[in-house]
Amino acid sequence: MAMPSTNPATYTGFSALKLIGTALLPFALALVVAGVVLAMAGHNPFDVYRLLALESFGSSKRIAATMAAATPLIFTGLGTAVAFRAGAFNVGVEGCVSIGGLAAAYVGFTFVTLPAALLLPFAMLAAALAGLAWMIIPGLLKARLDADEVVTTLMMNFIAVAIATWLVNGPLLAVGSANSATPMVAEAARLPRLMRGSTLNAGFLIALICVLLYWLWGKRTALGFETRLAGMSPRFATATGMNVPRLVLKMMLLSGALGGIAGGTHALGNVYRYVDGFSPGYGFVGIAVALLGRGNAWGILMAAILFGALSTSGATIQLFSDVPIEIVDILQGMVMIFAVARFGALGRKAA
Amino acid sequence: MLDNLIHAALIMTTPILLAALGGLINRTGGIVNIGLDSMMLFGAMTALIVAADNGSWLLALAVAGGTGAFIGGLMSLVITRLKANEIIVGLGFSIVATGLARFILKSTYGVSGTLRLPDVTRLPVIDIPGVADVPVLGAMLSGHNVLTWFAWGMVPAAAWFLVRTRAGLRLRATGAGEKAARSLGLRPLAIRDASTLFAGFMAGLAGAYLSIGLVGIFNEGITAGRGFIALAAFYFGRNHPVMTALGALLFGFFDALQIRLQGRGFPPELVQTLPYVMVIVILAMLAWSAKKRNGART
Amino acid sequence: MTQSLALKAGEARVRLGARGITRRFGALTANDQIDFSARPGTIHAIVGGNGAGKSTLMRILQGMDQPDEGSIIVNDSAVTLSGPAEAFRLGIGMVHQEFMLVNQLTMLENLILAREPVSSLGVIDRAAALKAGQDLAERAGVTLNWHQRVQDAPVHARQILEILRLLYRGADVLILDEPTAVLAPQQIRDLLVLLQRLRDDGRTILFISHKLGEVMAISDDITVIRTGRVITSGPADETSKAQLAVQMTGEMVRAVTPRRAREGDTVLSITGLGLTDGRGIRRLSGIDLSVAAGEIVALAGISGNGQDELVEAITGLSSISEGNVALRYHDVTGMSLHQRRALGLAYLSPDRAHEGLCLEASITDNVIAGHHRRAEFLASGLLRLKAIRAHAEAQLDRFGVRRDSAALPVSSLSGGNQQRVAIARELDGSPALLIACQPTRGVDIHGIAAIHQCLLEYRDAGGAVLLVSEELEEIMTLADRITVLFNGAVRGTLRRGEADVESIGRLMLGEDA
């Protein structure tokens, strides 16, 4: 199956202006469409958007909430982007979020005697490894057999959620708990909060470090260089002596690990356990983040913050007005659609 | 017990089968439809509204199918004319549809999640006199509504359409060899759009089956990912209508089974994963045999 | 419509032709004042090597591309073709090298696609379809399994289907682009018989080929083109294979560059190499070949005689059925390209756009790819961008790549400069052996001289070169030894001095030198 038309790998970064333009256009179009929906429902879209902006960035508390909401999206956006860059169309980060979150929670409530200095890293490592392991099968199938990774990873998502649901309903169900959830993780396993009265936690710092590492990986490492070339032209990469299947596998696994970390920070930083319905589509929004950010490290960060702003302001706007929070889902989905649409194709006749 | 299970399996098969046949036609034409679930969702919602408002189940079906087709048409245009990636667009449509459905429920009906309307006309059940009491056969043939009969009727119809009609041949040519089709003067994009309209129509009907056929209400989670199970079904069936129907039947059986397994100690969630696992296994096997065939180049 | 066209075609003197057709792509003139006339009811061959401008001309004759100057002649009058559909309306149909068939459909379904005989309600009339197919096949003197899927059908059957489909759709001018490239000898004979039969039936055939034996066997008229120009055009019985070979590849115009380097150790040694492909067709057999340090060995031959397969075998891009490949006395038969590169192999791909370069990536990236893990460019796990940029600039200067900025995509360069980028990368780090495939394809005249100079300097510094080229002139200019491939086997090897165009031409045609 073909890669998305806006393969981030093709963006070489010599025109920052163009990057901003191509990233803003989908967002602007999504605002227009959602504005029509709002207007039809009897809301003034401009008022709603002003309120959204205010609720996202209006105060340091709101900004902190936005960053907290952006945290998992940064990881899933980066996770999607590394696979895309290698030419692997991985839509399975969503499943890794669940598996990673469950693994982190499991470690967090099981090894409660460990000190924080050990337990927290151990739990995060478990999350990363679980996410990585979840991508072994689709990764191998793609790298060795060239099996359609879109379908395999999509299917892996459903399997991941179902398995996690089974585990939290049975073997890992908290004693005395009626709803499908694991026990709470130990205090020592929780990511420290960064600000009083806000859910913003150390996970955000890890996310920023990952953005930096991703940038470094893309710009300054041999592996990142090879991945970029392999994604753009597998034949060229092969002819210059690179092992393309192995690169693809590595990036699929890395993609899974980042998805796992997304789940880990969500479990250890926000919910402190794994509950049924753990991920509100972090992995899927991550695809939109990667696409909107055009695979660029800072673009991904910006896009994740944008989506984080949407979800956090959507949650509070519901309290202050009668605008349903779902306007955020509509916006997110629209951005995803417009991010891959090529409006230049309209005037052209198909070749 | 067995009768019950057969009956339940068939009931759960219908929505999967309807959407899978639509997706099959769509994929034959060259589009992998990831957005079936969104079309199903809106079919379910509009069917319920029309069935309550107007009271005609036939009109409700028409509107549900039409709504699905409309969403399918939009999705298709983005894919064929704006050259957008079908997977991303399909996922995007699923996200938008989920949000929009809830948005509409809240804005228009002031309810959250579930819509109950008075006087919903349900799909009529067709009973064949004398069959209902026959063991097994009765479970298979009686107590099903019009859409179940329609869905199974569409299986041979789709097979016949693809092989024997001009439109079916052109559809297959478009999906399997766009360049060749275009070189002969066919219009692949238009043919593709038509196939997505049909997929949307079928998915819309599948949604109507869930809302006015099965439960009589609408819920934001009513599809329970059946659009994706339908995807698994036509991948499982490798685009053959009969094999796809078998896949849908198998997945419908799993669905019925997991309901029955609840409270019996066997985890129903794991049964639910079977369709997805089977698709991965089948894709792996296909890729492996393709690799063996192509061989040489390392 | 068809009736009147046939009448008109019968009366016309020129069924299909060109008058002064010129087509430029930037600095490159692909077609330069092309003239030819295909008379009705004849087979007219268009002969030329790769890059001669044949495909551009074919696209123009199909209406897929418009000439900058000149016009297409159909039935004695100038016409403008808006596209293949328009060409088809005038009775002109084409069989492309890449078949326009839908592999998953049956032969019969492919035949009738888009022109299906239908009964009521759009239901295909299968009996009528089958009868139409059988009638066509019978008239053409061939048999086809109509219910077989195209993907299961042998290549020659697919080709016959393409031809019959043109007839089914009413074409009476058939353009065939390198139709025999994919066929075995017996199948070629059958195809030629079929084409003659169609001609005798009144059809006009434009036969594009570089296989001179076939061209001489069936053509009534022959037009030779080289570097976009018509070299000669006239009746087939007024020329000969040898003459065509010279006209096609160009005569030697340049003085031989004197040798400076002495031959050294054997760098590449191939023994008993053979290859049978996935379809069971024998591609290479019993090849023995060696290249020593300080010499250029050229692999000559008409394209499709095993050059690509041999190169893939030497580079390790594909595995072989039997025999051995040794690089500097190491047996590398089972090794990957990466391992072979580590032993001193360099590979200049014939497919510059997809394999030789990564067009979307920057010039610097293209120069450095494959060398980026060298210690000087990688310090404690990080790429040393400054050193990389400096090295790339130095390499680009050394090979005279004219550029605005090395940070721009390599696609922004002209063909000649692009090729120099690839050469700059491959000759970096003094490899022991360079496999140089079509090093000057699509490069302008100045670029060619510069690239030749690079190769000679590399040889004189003690490098070993295996040159694969379809340009005889290039081979005569550069090579110390010339090995001619024919039909997947070595037909003969000539030393510089004993080689002349005629003897090489004979070897290329499978005759004795």
UniProtKB/TrEMBL annotation, chain A:
Spans through the membrane: 63-84, 91-112, 118-141, 153-178, 198-217, 247-268, 274-293, 300-321, 327-345
UniProt keyword Chaperone, yes or no: no
Pfam family, one: BPD_transp_2
Database matches in InterPro entries: ABC_transp_permease
Signal peptide annotation: none
GO molecular function term, any single one: transmembrane transporter activity
UniProt topology in membrane: Multi-pass membrane protein
Protein name as catalogued: ABC transporter permease
From TrEMBL, chain B:
Topology relative to the membrane: Multi-pass membrane protein
Pfam families named in the record: BPD_transp_2
Protein name stated in the entry: ABC transporter permease
Highest taxon of source: Bacteria
Cellular component GO terms held in the UniProt record: plasma membrane
PANTHER family per UniProt: ABC TRANSPORTER PERMEASE PROTEIN (PTHR43370:SF2), SUGAR ABC TRANSPORTER INTEGRAL MEMBRANE PROTEIN-RELATED (PTHR43370)
The keyword Cell membrane is assigned to this record: yes
One Gene Ontology molecular-function label: transmembrane transporter activity
Key word Zinc present: no
Subcellular location: Cell membrane
Chief place of localization: membrane
TrEMBL record, chain C:
Source species of the chain: Pseudooceanicola spongiae
PROSITE patterns reported in the protein's UniProt record: ABC_TRANSPORTER_1 (PS00211), ABC_TRANSPORTER_2 (PS50893)
Keywords assigned: ATP-binding, Nucleotide-binding
Protein name, as recorded: ATP-binding cassette domain-containing protein
Taxonomic lineage: Bacteria, Pseudomonadati, Pseudomonadota, Alphaproteobacteria, Rhodobacterales
Protein origin, superkingdom: Bacteria
Pfam families (alphabetical): ABC_tran (PF00005)
GO molecular function, one term: ATP binding
Domain (ABC transporter) ranges: 16-252, 268-512
